[in-house]
Structure formats: structure tokens, C-alpha cells
Amino acid sequence: MLSFNVSVDVHGGDGEESGPATIGWLLAENESRLIYKPPQRLKQPSPSRPRTHAKSVTACPAVLGLESRLFEVQCPCDLTLRMAETDFGEPAVVNADGPMSTVRDDVFANLIILHPREEWRDPGRPILQMRLPYIFIADEPTYMSQLPPFQHLRKTPLPGLMIPGRFPINVWPRTLTWAFEWHDISAPLELRRGDPLFYVLFEVLPQSRAIQLVEAERTPELEAYLQQINGVVGFVNQTFSLFRAAEELRPAHLVQPKKKP
């Protein structure tokens, strides 16, 4: 059973929620949907033959229950990265596509961030992050997990592991990053536009409720709250300790579905 230690009573009732749980998503200001595609509900792999058995995996409630809560975020661009060293012997990430890269040097410098060596979990395994503009929000207790795309079979495996994470988006909405721990630094890290970069999984109560993902408006209330959240990340190490304080500042509603043109 899920246990949510942080909650926001935005509905004013004592009973359990019913109906779909509405989750909002949006992009950071000035980011283009032409580059950053909307999150998509994970689609079941097409079976190679019709279901002929009641116990088929295509009808398994455990599989279907998980997949119904997974949404896919795609890689925004083609990248081939390699580990290198600076003239001072410090580790560095370089764009191996060079002048043939689709990503300009100034964009690359802001997109890919290599953690300092003292922040790595292992001295031989660099950790980098790709900055992304995706923000997910909710108006009820909701935990979101950011997970590797385990349903996607790559022709060439990644030379390391994506670092997953989990946090409550009803009180701590913020822009996401894709974090990667590079295990085999002799191999390039190849990412292709349109491939699944990661999944997001949403946990709500009761657990049987469906998830409805909608594009959200950037309202003045949401904008002000996001600025308060983003303003403390660089000053506090254990940001989860601020959840209760953030809850007190949180407006009653954050999710306002965007009107279709």
C-alpha cells in the first residue's frame, strides 16, 4: 500500500477520490513543442499473433495496470557523446558529432551538464544530466517516478544506467533532467531524437484510479509557485525537508487544462 506523508487537501472532502486522477504537464517558458514532444501514454507492443489463451501476457492485469500508469518522454535531439579530459586532466563531455552535429555549441553547453567528480557515486563512473523543460503538476497527493524506458529494446545498449527518481508533484513541481551514470567510458553515449528517453509513472490513491494526463496552462499562480520552488534548490542540500513549508505556500489549484485552439 502506498503511503503519502505529504498531502494537500484541495478538495475539501474526507472521502476517497473517485474518477480519473488529472495530472498536468507543461514546458518551461519559451521552449518549443516542435523540439520537445508531448508525453505519450505507453503503448502495448503489438502482439505478433491473436490472443489464444486466457492467461496471455496481453491480458495480465498486473502488466496492464503498470502500463496504464506509464507515460513516455522522447529524446529531443540526436547526440553522440564521448568522455574526454581537459588540458588540466579534468573529465569532460564532448559532442562527438563535431561540426556535423544538429546541436549548436552554445545549446550543447546548456543542455548537457557533467557533475563534478566528487559528486559521482563511483570514481570511475561519471554522472551527467540532460536539462529538460518538462514540468508535471497535480492537485492531489501524487508521487511521480522517473524510470528508464525498459520496454524499449535498443540495438546498441547504453554504456551505463539512467538514474531514476521519485518525488511528490503536488507540492514539488520542477523541471526534469535526464541523469545518466556512465559505466563504460570507452564507449560513446548515443541518443536519437524520437527514441524513448525515460518513462514517468504516477501513483495516486486509490491505486485503481485511471490517470488522465492533460497539458496545463501556465497560470500566474503556478508561475509564482514554480519560482519559489526553483529558487531554493541551489541553497539547500536536502530539498525534501522543505515539502511541508512548500505545502503551506501552495495555492489551492495548480492544474488548469489548456484550452484547445
Supply database-style keywords.
261 residues, alpha+beta, Deoxyuridine 5'-Triphosphate Nucleotidohydrolase, Chain A, five-stranded antiparallel beta sheet, four-stranded antiparallel beta sheet
Describe this entry's structure for a reader:
This protein has 261 residues and is of the alpha+beta class. The protein has one domain (21-26, 65-249): Deoxyuridine 5'-Triphosphate Nucleotidohydrolase, Chain A, CATH 2.70.40. Helix content is 12%, strand content 28%. It has four helices and 15 strands. The chain has helices at residues 61-67, 105-111, 220-230, 243-249, and strands at residues 21-27, 40-41, 70-74, 79-85, 91-95, 112-114, 127-131, 134-138, 143-147, 160-162, 165-168, 177-182, 189-191, 196-203, 211-215. It has a five-stranded antiparallel sheet with strand order 2-3-14-9-11, with no helix packed on it. Strands 6-7-12-10 form a four-stranded antiparallel sheet. A three-stranded mixed sheet has the order 8-1-15, with no helix packed on it. A hairpin with a 5-residue loop joins strand 4 and strand 5. The radius of gyration is 20 Å and the shape is globular. Residues 1-15 have low confidence and may be disordered.
